[in-house]
Write a structure and sequence with these properties.
Length: about 425
């Protein structure tokens, strides 16, 4: 980073730190965004922002439309309902609603006009490719990590017909169906030419699953292998999930030097009628993670947990295992109140050896608000921490602030991945 510290050095202490935190470019290490080559998979624009599943869940608190009727509507009509109920009939104070307004404001749009058709016209006039770069600049994001699933019917053909690398995006291999729905996935793998057995997996199956993982890792140039797991995930266990992790995923990650990213705590389809908005949270037993970290010291695990009540235990585990990298404030924890609590707790227990945030954005422009909001909180906690140090007489230099922030914003993560 060029001159931030030189400029910041002229400012009061707290403002210096804020300036560095607000402006240091970073990689967004977990999103659900796609490079433009994936066409309709890349979501952007005001209607997509309004029907983000976080907002849909909130809108149904007020809506009395039957679920199926809502889903049968065209997207602009769904968005109109969300706008009506969450922005016009009530003040938009939830974090997800506020996020839409932060985003529009940062894009130079006048939110006080409350003019949805005008917002639609503005987005319709954008060139998608330039708009991506513009949003990344506003968010200070230098690389967007995607979530790439070979099991996705829309995504798979793009990879198979030859995806041309877009420097702004980094692929990551997502394997939930492989680990969480083995019988169905075995059928799909067999159809794609892998000689797997449908029942309890044996050595032949393990070899074939590894061939599958190797082919897709190379095809995508994946940075890590990822799965989100339910609260009752156990390891080791006498089930296909556990065996596939031990015999396929972990050796694969060791061979390719990749972290295995685990996201424990999601209860899928608590209310299936809400579709993507219908997932919930549960307390995880992190003994499974302890067993993984202890049993496989040659593997690297990057982990974010969904339950607030698991955050402390996760930090303690990271103190015990250097092959564990804690990242992000995921989904229901991505609200200012919890981001601040978690960031403070992580700094107090782990120093600077974690990655405080990822956006989990599903709609392009969300990177703007997710990063603006989180950066402010991270700055606030850092100012507090450096100030407490100053009470002992320890003074940090502007260069040291920059070094620390760069470590938090991708530097530490990249080192962990290279190890
Ligand atoms: O599993 C995940 O990666 C989750 O982030 C998603 O399933 C979830 O829908 C989401 O968007 C959370 O932010
Ligand atoms: Zn996600």
């Amino acid at each position: 980073m060029k001159t931030i510290h030189a400029e910041a050095a002229q400012l009061p202490f707290a403002t210096q730190i804020e300036t560095v935190v607000m402006s240091t470019p970073l990689p967004d290490i977990h999103t659900h965004l796609y490079a433009p080559a994936f066409r309709e998979l890349l979501l952007w624009g005001i209607d997509e922002l309004l029907i983000y599943h976080y907002l849909v869940a909130e809108a149904f608190r007020y809506l009395d439309v039957p679920y199926e009727k809502f889903w049968a509507m065209p997207k602009p009509e769904q968005a109109g309902l969300v706008w009506q109920h969450l922005f016009l009939e009530h003040s938009p104070i939830s974090e997800s609603c506020r996020g839409v307004l932060t985003t529009l404001h940062a894009l130079g749009l006048d939110v006080k006009k409350r003019d949805l058709p005008a917002l639609r016209s503005w987005f319709a006039a954008q060139d998608a490719d330039q708009h991506i770069t513009h949003c990344m600049e506003l968010a200070g994001v230098k690389k967007i990590y995607m979530t790439n699933s070979p099991f996705d019917e829309l995504e798979r053909p793009v990879w198979e017909t030859g995806y041309r690398q877009d420097e702004r995006f980094q692929a990551c291999l997502r394997i939930d169906p492989l680990l969480l729905a083995w019988p169905e996935t075995a059928v799909a793998l067999a159809r794609w030419g892998y000689a797997v057995e449908a029942g309890q997996p044996g050595q032949k199956t393990f070899d074939e699953v590894r061939r599958f993982l190797a082919e897709w890792t190379k095809r995508m140039g994946a940075a890590y292998v990822m799965v989100s797991i339910p609260p009752d995930f156990a390891f080791p266990a006498k089930n296909a999930t556990s065996q596939l992790i031990e015999k396929c995923v972990l050796p694969h990650c060791r061979e390719f030097g990749l972290p295995f990213a685990l996201m424990p705590g999601v209860r899928r389809a608590v209310n299936p009628q809400l579709r993507l908005a219908g997932d919930g949270v549960g307390l995880s037993n992190l003994t499974a993670l302890q067993n993984l970290c202890a049993g496989f010291p040659e593997n690297k695990f990057m982990v974010t947990v969904l339950a607030r009540e698991n955050q402390h235990e996760l930090c303690v585990l990271a103190r015990k295992f250097r092959n564990l990298h804690v990242f992000g404030c995921w989904w229901f924890t991505n609200v200012p109140y919890l981001i601040e609590e978690m960031t403070r707790m992580r700094m107090e227990l782990l120093g600077l050896s974690f990655t405080p945030q990822h956006s989990d954005a599903r709609v392009l422009e969300q990177i703007i608000y997710k990063w603006q909001h989180s950066r402010r909180i991270i700055a606030k906690v850092l100012v507090e921490k450096y100030s407490i140090l100053a009470q002992t007489g320890w003074q940090v230099t502007p260069e040291e602030v920059e070094r620390d922030v760069q470590g938090l914003f991708g530097g530490g993560f990249e080192r962990f991945c290279r190890k």
